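User: Fold both of these, please.

Assistant: Here is the first one.
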Amino acid sequence: MKPYLALAALALSLATPVSADEFPSRAVRVIVAYSAGGTADAAARLAVEPLSRQLGQSVYLENRPGSGGMTGTQAFFTLPPDGYTLLIIGPGSVAIIPAAKPVTFVTERDLIPLGSVWISPQLLAVRTSFGAKTVQEFVAYAKANPGKINIASAGNGTLTHMSGELLKREAGIELTHIPFRSTGDTQAALIGGQIDALFGDVAVLQPQIQSGLIRPLALASAKRSPLLPDLMTMAEAGFPAVTATNWYGFAVSSKTAAPVVAYLKNAVAKMQAEPAYQEALAKRGVSSGDPGAEAFAAMVGREVKQWKSLLSLSTIKID
């Protein structure tokens, strides 16, 4: 059975608990706590149209970037918990940064995950004029030139930042971290030669790689990507602990009325089941992950626990 058929079966099994004249009766806003052009923004924009179809209302995005996703995420909790504002959540904003420093919310207590919309492994890439053509050469250069390699991220505490920190720890090297406001900004800087390296989603970086604008070194996942089948993994390069998968999904405030939450969960499950949506994701080399709110909530819980453990037991810092 094709994946989207399994998703469709799940969606059809879910009853609609709230009638259409109760909720939603107007447009729904989605807060994206990152800049336009970044990965979170791309994930949200891909999901807006199918979600709008399932809700029977317009769905629009509002970008509120800053502080690695904290500006928009913390602002979300000041808005009415009526279900008309959703939040795009990802590892940096709800798992990594809250594990490292005080924030105004508790992920497990204050958010209800509705469903995932984007799952993609990270890869390490360098500017084309950089001497290293393999991870081993990159590490050798870094060891011979401590701190001279600049590695960019989409902001302090983002997954792109943590991926670089994992590489530093596992390879025993020093890199100079340069935080930007978004993945889109880091790509432009890498292409322009202002920085040396970055981690980013394989789905987002693949067009620049194929165009010869940047050079990939390795994929931070357990297996190779169908988008770049010849690209080795970090494990194959000798660094199996450098694994990082980016993910995004919809969430709503835990203060939202239960019938509205149930309606939104149902709509997102049906959105995930749309064949056109699944095909659009597949073309980008990503997936929406396991279907349904329960699966997404379980994944968020694992991520929160994982990063709490990692950041409490290591020297990795996000500032």
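And the second sequence with its predicted structure:
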Amino acid sequence: MQAVGLRVIHRNWRRLEEYDFCDALTREQWAWEFLRRNRDYRREWRRFIETWRALEADYGRPPNRDFCAWKNDPRAWVPAEECGEGDCRIDGGKVLIECALGARWGFHKFPPDPADDDPVGEGRLTWRPLPPEPLPEAGQAWRPGLETMALVFDLSLPLKSQLEQARRQLQMEAARRRRQGLVPKRVATLKEEWKGLLRLIDAEAADERADLFMLEPRGDADSQWRRARAMMNGGYLRILRLPP
């Protein structure tokens, strides 16, 4: 088992009932379940909270915090470039550590403890809006898949009516593909797969991944582990793009 402080992050993968809670998770909560198991996030959070508690010891906690002194302490800041493409407020080329950490991992509000079961449902974490997927540049080869659809617009004509027509076309085509099973990626249809990936991650944390595959062989073990690792390393954000 892995833990932050005295609180367990990973569940006992051998007990299926420990994953019953997954059946009621929203996509935002699913994203948290994968992120909280990411070792890099846990490591960064531990460093962050150690610094935060040291600052609180020196300058107090709200509502009695000496914020002026806090802001003048270099430990409270990181260079603005560490915020990446986030929307953190930049002050003199630097960003507050709590905002920078959230921006790196894709969320707003105070960075949650990985041992926190539901910061999303309790309103202590909200995901940052995801930028749209980049469109192919002019002249770039592009092959549409089952989850994509290309439309052509006439730029010499008013766009408003074309956009409305395009919206209707997209809605009808999405509904048609879902009825035919051509677009299976919805949160409701992926829950069982994700539940299996969480169990795999938890088995790995307990150094029992081989035991899981021995008890429940489900195809290529290496491929499954790559999928599980990808979900922790940024794939959790793609969950937020999926319909319920």
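Residues 38-113 form one domain.
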